[in-house]
UniProtKB/TrEMBL annotation:
Species this chain originates from: Cardamine amara subsp. amara
UniProt xrefs under InterPro entries: DUF4218 (IPR025452), Transposase_21 (IPR004242)
Pfam families in the cross-refs: DUF4218 (PF13960), Transposase_21 (PF02992)
Cited PANTHER family: DUF4216 DOMAIN-CONTAINING PROTEIN, OS08G0208400 PROTEIN
TM stretches of this protein: none
Protein name (database record): DUF4218 domain-containing protein
Residue ranges constituting the DUF4218 domain according to the UniProt record: 325-422
Length: 511
């Protein structure tokens, strides 16, 4: 996932959101993927010194949750927004909050003999849960259902030509047939679209910290939440301060600890003391990686002496879960432990926080261990590499009225230079330079006295030398000659060549 190996294949122009018409822009990419699968391309194997037919397959897509809906065709808002639970969800709409809620939707993931399943007071009042987890739908079944529902592909009906699919929002949430189903192997994939752990973790952290600090306008514990609380729960703090809210003195103590005692190594995280706002009692300017660090490294013990013991354990549990999920290596036993622990962790949070706290971002972690079992460590399936990659072309934009064109121009000029650096590795170039030491000394004596009319003869001699050595497979000598002629031309100020990350330019010596 290094930046040198990431390629910008398609850039969707703005400023309007493509929405359902994203498949229109993906048609060239899908065509090339079909060609790579059906016919392949000729490639050369350096280790075996022979040509072979190389084929390529698209493993999965990586995107945030709104883009998940554009890529998959499953609408990611509303009561049926979870792409795994589908129509088997227990989500509902709050009466006063008027938002979809996933409160008490996770007891079904617990073992059948767990005492939480029989509780009628800790979760939704007067309700017991006997159902099991929702079944998973394989790709062949989804492909068949899309045909039955009459979902159309955007490439055939146009970006705005979609007819509402029968039963959408009631029995399913399919709004189109994604263009990825045109790939012959797509229905056989076990993992087609990844839930982005980066944004899920960030949103989960913001909901927790804003509710604990009681940030006005962002806390989940508001007036409408208090009105909905007696309708669904049997709790005795409807009109008092809840146990998960920090008092003013303890909030100041927490901020003082962040400013004065918390230290990280250089480059590990930003300076969190600059993110503390005493006046409004909240964090400001925190990036996704800052939320990632605080969630996994500070949250497991930050509120040990500031909140009650049961509240601290519930909050620390979700931090430990994301820390174990984002570890560099995963084992089958570790993933099984994560799958067993995450329902219990979310149920412990449901015992404390109001129903309005649990939107779809608090529900999606229940499915992350399953994706880890199929796709492996999250470092290869989250948005961090792509967000950091796009930072570099964006910062080079010169024409703000033509942002897309500036990005394309930047990428087009950068890729050949990157390819040269990858092909002629730095260590190999150093070895070539050592072997060219005597040739360079000879060049320094001859080149200043060489007139420009000798340049065609020089190029002709070099061309013959490269051709002869290429035919005899002496690639090492070819590269030596190539680097030598580049240096010669640069010293003659014929052109300027950008090599090894710096611009090589020399002025002619006085004769």
């Amino acid at each position: 996932m290094r930046r040198e190996f990431l390629f910008l294949s398609i850039l969707v122009p703005g400023p309007e959101h493509p929405k359902r018409s994203l498949d229109i822009f993906l048609q060239p990419l899908i065509y090339e993927l079909q060609m790579l699968w059906d016919h392949g391309v000729e490639a050369f194997d350096v280790s075996c010194q022979q040509n072979f037919k190389m084929r390529a397959v698209l493993m999965w897509t990586i995107s945030d949750f709104p883009a998940y809906g554009m890529l998959s065709g499953w609408t990611t808002h509303g009561r049926l927004s979870c792409p795994y639970c589908e129509e088997n969800t227990d989500a509902f709409q709050l009466k006063h909050g008027r938002k979809s809620c996933w409160f008490d939707c996770h007891r079904r993931f617990l073992p059948s003999d767990h005492p939480y399943r029989r509780s009628t007071t800790l979760f939704t009042k007067n309700k017991k849960v006997f159902d099991g987890p929702p079944p998973l739908t394989d790709g062949s079944t989804i492909f068949h259902l899309l045909g039955e529902f009459g979902a159309e592909s955007t490439s055939y009906c146009g970006g705005n030509g979609h007819v509402p699919v029968y039963g959408v929002g009631e029995v399913h949430n399919w709004h189109k047939k994604s263009i990825f189903w045109d790939l012959p192997y797509w229905k056989n994939h076990l993992l087609r679209h990844n839930l982005d752990v980066m944004h899920i973790e960030k949103n989960f952290f913001e909901n927790i910290i804003n509710t604990i600090l009681n940030v006005q306008g962002k806390t989940k514990d508001n007036v409408k939440s208090r009105l909905d609380l007696p309708l669904y729960c049997s709790r005795d703090y409807v009109e008092v301060v809840p146990p998960y809210r920090l008092k003013v003195a303890r909030k100041t103590e927490f901020f003082d600890w962040i400013r004065e005692d918390v230290r990280f190594t250089d480059g590990y995280a930003s300076n969190l003391r600059n993110c503390v706002d005493y006046g409004q009692g909240k964090f400001t300017g925190m990036k996704s990686h800052d939320c990632h660090v605080v969630m996994q490294r500070l949250l497991p013990f930050a509120f040990e002496h500031l909140l009650e013991k049961n509240v601290h354990k519930a909050i620390a549990g979700i931090g430990v879960f994301f820390r174990d999920l984002c570890s560099r290596t995963l084992t089958a036993e570790g993933i099984a432990c994560l799958s067993e622990n995450i329902p219990m962790i979310i149920c412990n949070l449901e015992k404390l926080f109001p129903p309005s706290f649990f939107d779809v971002m608090e529900h999606l972690p229940i499915h992350l261990p399953q994706e880890a079992a199929l796709g492996g460590p999250v470092q290869y399936r989250w948005m961090y590499p792509f967000e950091r990659y796009m930072f570099h072309p964006k910062k080079k934009v010169k024409n703000l009225s033509k942002v897309e064109g500036s990005i394309v121009a930047r990428v087009s000029t950068k890729k050949p230079h990157t390819l040269l650096n990858i092909t002629f590795h730095r260590k190999f170039v150093r070895r070539v330079d050592d072997q060219l030491a005597m040739m360079i000394e000879e060049r320094d004596r001859v080149i200043p006295r060489m007139p420009l009319n000798c340049l065609p003869k020089l190029v002709e001699r070099v061309g013959k030398a490269i051709t002869e050595n290429y035919r005899s497979k002496n690639m090492h000598i070819c590269i030596c000659i190539f680097l030598q002629i580049v240096r010669i031309l640069c010293n003659m100020k014929v052109f300027t060549w950008t090599l090894y990350g710096r611009t090589t330019r020399s002025t002619p010596r006085k004769t």
